[in-house]
């Protein structure tokens, strides 16, 4: 009997804030239970650490420099490359999305015809502020998003509750039909605003929380690209200890709130008798820097930004396994094809990903390379990263490159790029990146296209006259 596939997605969830990934702080009982009956991918990455590009890459199984969805003002239209939703629909598989997609519009033929409570970019355009790059003034509203912690319900809280309710109703609807089906349920938390219901905030007393790593300005990472990001977010003046801890508390509270919504969906899957025949994949679109080096949000190549949780469970998936193979969101496309037993299409033959179902059953591949890139807000230059075995290599156009051994240095405290004894490894990593793209050429091409879009809008001044928002508005009605 063919299996159903349920993809659960959150926004801005770093794996360090999840019990299944070893956190002694995060209370995530539902994700932990999912992981206990499935496989945890210990080295999972997004392909661009910001919402719109990451979600476009996940939908198409291609890198953002290939599709052109490079910043939060270049949402997926459906014409750049086919989505895995399109492949499922073409095969006659009922396909439904509930919640955040962050494409351009429901009117576009993205391959997801049944969108329930969709959240797309603002005004069908997104924020061209993200395309200004070195012409961007500091986004001081971002600092406000960190320090403005509030007890209560935000539009995002109400939206996610509505998404969970819709998903539960949809699962009851599917129980009375014939499978297989494909569904994606996508929440907006723990993405800020840092407004948290009291019951979830109470899970994390301030006095129980540690300060983030390297939060002291004397310990900050001062690489030029990181300094630019920090300054552009209005974070060059450090937060107070209380501001920091309240932001950490709010983030963890939102993580637990999101986990509770995931639990409602998984409970409905069980209650409707579909759990035994449904493969479940949980991922996030990117991580959260969570105060490390005085940084918040995402948009850097730091592990807190590019690392994501990825948990796979269901029929045929090894239970209780931790998989060390490097994986990324471009692996979702072939996972969908594999899980639904769809016929591969010739035009998808050059996709860079592999099925997570296959990877979960194989011995860890110590040589697999995954890739991420960043071309959006709060950056003056293109950032490109590969993870190859334990090695993490970062190329910045115009700035010094970086090299880390994450096996011995998981918190990126020892940059080995300037150490002559690692020159062979450095060259191997450069070559591996060049097999994917020419990073300096990609940076040039993307910046040219961004300048074209800004000029078409009326220039920098016209972009700056548009009201700036720290996050996409949600409508929970």
Automatic annotation (TrEMBL):
Domain Sulfatase N-terminal per the UniProt entry, residue ranges: 5-341
SUPFAM superfamilies: Alkaline phosphatase-like (SSF53649)
InterPro entries per UniProt: Alkaline_phosphatase_core_sf, Sulfatase_N
Pfam families in alphabetical order: Sulfatase
Entries under CDD domains matching the protein: sulfatase_like
Keywords: Hydrolase, Metal-binding
Keyword Metal-binding tagged: yes
Entry protein name: Sulfatase
């Amino acid at each position: 009997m063919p299996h159903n596939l349920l993809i659960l997605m959150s926004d801005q969830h770093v794996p360090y804030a999840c019990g299944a990934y070893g956190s002694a702080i995060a209370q995530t009982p539902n994700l932990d239970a999912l992981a206990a009956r499935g496989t945890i991918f210990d080295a999972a990455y997004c392909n661009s650490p910001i919402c719109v590009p990451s979600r476009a890459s996940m939908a198409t199984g291609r890198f953002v420099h290939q599709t052109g969805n490079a910043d939060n003002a270049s949402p997926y239209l459906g014409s750049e490359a086919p989505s895995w939703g399109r492949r499922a629909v073409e095969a006659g598989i009922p396909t439904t999305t509930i919640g955040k997609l962050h494409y351009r519009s429901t009117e576009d033929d993205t391959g997801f015809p049944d969108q329930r409570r969709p959240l797309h970019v603002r005004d069908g355009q997104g924020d061209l502020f993200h395309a200004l790059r070195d012409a961007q003034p500091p986004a001081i509203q971002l600092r406000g998003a960190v320090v403005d912690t509030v007890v209560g319900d935000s539009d995002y809280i109400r939206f996610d509750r509505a998404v969970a309710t819709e998903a539960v109703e949809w699962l009851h609807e599917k129980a009375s039909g014939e499978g297989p089906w494909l569904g994606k349920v996508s929440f907006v938390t723990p993405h800020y605003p840092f407004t948290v219901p009291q019951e979830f905030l109470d899970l994390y007393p301030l006095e129980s929380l540690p300060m983030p790593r390297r939060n002291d300005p004397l310990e900050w990472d001062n690489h030029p690209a990181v300094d630019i990001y920090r300054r552009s977010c209005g974070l060059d003046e450090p937060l107070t200890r209380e501001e920091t801890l309240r932001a950490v508390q709010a983030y963890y509270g939102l993580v637990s709130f999101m986990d509770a919504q995931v639990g409602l969906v998984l409970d409905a899957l069980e209650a409707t008798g579909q759990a035994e025949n449904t493969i479940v994949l949980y991922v996030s679109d990117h991580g959260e820097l969570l105060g490390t080096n005085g940084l918040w949000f995402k948009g850097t190549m730091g592990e807190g930004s590019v690392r994501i949780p990825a948990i796979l469970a269901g029929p045929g998936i090894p239970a209780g396994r931790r998989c060390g193979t490097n994986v990324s969101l471009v692996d979702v496309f072939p996972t969908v094809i594999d899980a639904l037993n769809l016929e591969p299409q010739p035009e998808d033959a050059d996709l860079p990903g592999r099925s997570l179902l296959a990877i979960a059953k194989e011995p860890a591949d110590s040589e697999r390379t995954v890739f991420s890139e960043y071309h959006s807000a709060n950056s003056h230059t293109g950032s490109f990263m590969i993870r190859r075995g334990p090695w993490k290599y970062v190329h910045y156009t115009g700035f010094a490159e970086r090299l880390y051994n994450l096996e011995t240095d998981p918190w990126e405290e020892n940059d080995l790029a300037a150490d002559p004894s690692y020159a062979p490894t450095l060259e191997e990593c450069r070559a591996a990146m060049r097999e994917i793209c020419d990073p300096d050429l990609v940076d040039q091409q993307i910046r040219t296209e961004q300048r074209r879009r800004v000029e078409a809008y009326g220039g920098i001044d016209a972009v700056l006259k548009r009201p700036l928002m720290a996050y996409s508005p949600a409508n929970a009605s």
